[in-house]
Specification:
This protein is globular. By secondary structure, it is α/β, with parallel strands linked by helices. 45% of the residues are buried. 41% of the residues lie in helices and 15% in strands. It has 14 helices and twelve strands. The protein folds into two domains: 118 residues, Rossmann fold (3-Layer(aba) Sandwich); 137 residues, Nitrogenase molybdenum iron protein domain (Rossmann fold), CATH 3.40.50.1980. Strands 7, 8, 9, 10, 11 and 12 form a six-stranded mixed β-sheet that branches. A four-stranded parallel β-sheet has the order 2-1-5-6, with helices on one face. A two-stranded antiparallel ribbon has the order 3-4.
């Protein structure tokens, strides 16, 4: 694998490459790639076109303005990419907003990339797609067996935990009803693979559909559903960043009236590292869900690190 020179422009693919034993073949990264920590020493090949320190409402407005003008949300440093002499560039075609896309790369680098550079485009719309993307990386990078081993490891852990959760559901008598919030202002529910993780953890998902992009929601519908559990895990936000805006929910009279507030079953999770990142740590995301749904029966060991209870 010494001749492989990979630029990873998705945080989840960087993690996958790490788990596949190819971290030392990665020569460049996106501005969002931050795990494992050693990846931070690599050259950064992308940047957002807007200030990301604003509120969730301000970020939403800036992104919508760029998209409405037909512009990309990200800058790709074509000269930096050219200088790294990559053999492969890993990007995605799942979402033009969430991460640097294949279109971003081609638009920026079409005149500088040689034909010998292979662009690998991933599309993780669902849990099955996450596994398929691991397989794709394994095949394209010449380590198919390693990819299959990682898929088997993830699948086995998910299946074991699902059986445990099924036994918890039998003991409690029903599946806890959960609303997963992926953006605070405006409100957005989690879609794609998150509804599947909830199903695997034997919970009843109230908003968002498996395999489909995250939908907008409103407080009236949330209040009417009166979920047993609410998980707040905004895309790209860690716990500290999310807590800066939790007052928008916690101070809302309708939110205050929810049963989960009275029963202290509102959780904030690190969406950036876990729930919004379709890579190998999807297992840890399900483990956290299992603890949120069945706190009297299961401990993930991630309370305080991956998620907190409000």
């Amino acid at each position: 694998m010494q001749d492989l020179r990979i630029i990873s422009l998705i945080a989840s693919s960087t993690e996958t490459l790490y788990r596949l034993g190819l971290l030392y073949n990665v020569v460049g990264r996106s501005h969002e790639c931050d795990y494992p920590a050693s990846i931070l020493d690599l050259p950064v090949c992308t940047s957002p076109k807007f200030e990301v320190d604003g509120t969730s409402y301000e970020i939403d407005q800036k992104v919508k303005a760029l998209v409405q003008e037909g512009l990309s949300v990200y800058r790709v440093d074509a000269e930096k990419i050219k200088s790294l002499n990559a053999t492969h560039i890993v990007t995605q075609i799942q979402c033009e907003v969430c991460a640097v896309s294949q279109k971003d790369v081609i638009d920026a680098c079409s005149l500088t990339l040689g034909e010998e550079v292979k662009i690998i485009s991933l599309k993780p719309d669902s849990f099955t797609d996450i596994l398929s993307d691991i397989d794709t990386l394994g095949i394209e990078l010449g380590i198919e067996s390693r990819g299959l081993d990682l898929i088997e490891e993830i699948t086995e852990k998910i299946e074991i935990l699902h059986k445990e959760c099924a036994s918890f559901q039998t003991k409690t008598g029903r599946a806890p009803r959960i609303a997963c919030i992926e953006w605070i202002e405006p409100l957005m529910a989690a879609g794609n693979w998150v509804p599947e993780l909830i199903e695997f953890a034997c919970g009843e998902n109230l908003f968002g559909e498996a395999g489909k992009h995250s939908p907008w929601m409103n407080m009236d519908d949330l209040a009417k559903s009166d979920p047993d559990v609410v998980l707040v895990t905004p895309c790209g936000f860690d716990i500290e960043r999310t807590m800066q805006e939790m007052h928008l929910l916690l101070d809302n009279p309708q939110f205050k009236s929810l049963s989960c507030m009275k029963n202290k079953r509102v959780y904030v999770a690190d969406g950036n590292q876990y729930f919004n990142r379709p890579g190998p740590r999807i297992v840890e995301s399900m483990q956290m869900l299992a603890e949120m749904l069945y706190p009297d029966h299961y401990s993930s060991g991630l309370m305080g690190k991956g998620f907190i209870q409000i």
